[in-house]
Amino acid sequence: MTSRSTARPNGQPQASKICQFKLVLLGESAVGKSSLVLRFLGMVAHTYNPSYLGAAFLTQSVCLDDTTVKFEIWDTAGQERYHSLAPMYYRGAQAAIVVYDITNQEAQAYADDNSLLFMETSAKTAMNVNDLFLAIGKSQQNKSQCCSN
């Protein structure tokens, strides 16, 4: 199969592969899961976001080299009363972002011990937010969720 490349309006070639995968955000209530996703979507994260039932579903696509990565993002509710619903949302996910309060630095050691991607981000300042999602997209780029255009 040959890959084709058509020009986009901005003159850059269109991606020849499409990757689509499920990504879930996990973490306790009020640690910034929704704010992180809103930053990635290009929206300003507010200090107060109202709670929702169970999970919110969002999508976003990014271009990485010759691949369009389409994220199906499940932002799970962190409240204790919704913990029983969480497995339903993260079943079948190819990636998970665990969001936590930065004063808990045990996460770095856990990630190191288990060969996991670890990156500190800030939804407030947007530090490393796009880099996090791009790193996840690159790690999934060559997996079976990708197909030729």
TrEMBL record:
Domain of life of the organism in this record? Eukaryota
Does the record carry DNA damage as a key word? no
Molecular function GO terms recorded: GTP binding; GTPase activity
Instruction: Write one Pfam family the protein is assigned to.
Output: Ras
Record flagged with keyword DNA-binding = no
UniProt keyword annotations, A-Z:
GTP-binding, Nucleotide-binding
InterPro entries from the xrefs? P-loop_NTPase, Small_GTP-bd, Small_GTPase
Protein family according to the UniProt entry: Belongs to the small GTPase superfamily. Rab family.
- Name the record gives this protein: RAB5B, member RAS onco family
